[in-house]
Amino acid sequence: MFLLFSERFQGTIASVNQASIQRKDPDSPMHYILFYEVADDYLSRRAEFRNAHLKLAWEAVERGELVLGGALADPVDGVLVVFKGDSPQVAEDFAKVDPYVTNGIVKRWYVRPWTTVAGESCATPVRPSAPAP
Predict the structure, then answer these.
(1) CATH classification of the domain holding 32
(2) pLDDT of the chain along its 133 residues, tens only?
(3) Is residue 53 part of a domain?
């Protein structure tokens, strides 16, 4: 299940079939992407809240929750932050206290599960099948 929030944390709940996501190790964390849709004045207001936002982000890195994050470019109209955890709660908790969100320069945010299948840190590694003889 992922949550979709508006500017004032009033949102709608949309379901994701978690049962369809199969991990080789069910006890290993999964990846979740936090999407921010930013306000039109995001670039002009970001500096005011950036240190507090980055402090929060680096604290999440130190706890092993935040994997990677940053603003989209050309145009700067959104932010993506990748988390790992047992549920989307870690990403949701981050967004609820992020100064970018609480000060209104993020107009909407939501979290989606991400089934990662390739790469060193993927949660559900899938290798190509061996060619048939």
Answers:
(1) 3.30.70.1060
(2) 334 443 333 333 333 334 444 555 666 789 999 999 999 999 999 999 999 999 999 999 999 999 999 999 999 999 999 999 999 999 999 999 999 999 999 999 999 999 999 998 899 999 998 787 7
(3) yes
Range(s) of the domain holding residue 89: 2-8+28-114
Residue 94 in any domain: the answer is: yes
In degrees, rounded to 5, the angle at the alpha carbon of residue 109 between the alpha carbons of residues 108 and 110 is: 135
Q: Find out whether 111 and 33 touch, Cβ atoms under 8 Å.
A: yes
pTM: 0.78
* Backbone dihedral angles phi then psi of residue 117, each to the nearest 5 degrees: -120, -10
Give alpha helix (H) positions in 4-131: 42-62, 89-97, 99-102
Which runs of consecutive H residues, i.e. helices, occur in the chain? 42-62, 89-97, 99-102
In a domain, 95, yes or no: yes
- DSSP H helix total and E strand total for the chain: 3, 6
Number of domains observed in the structure of the chain: 1
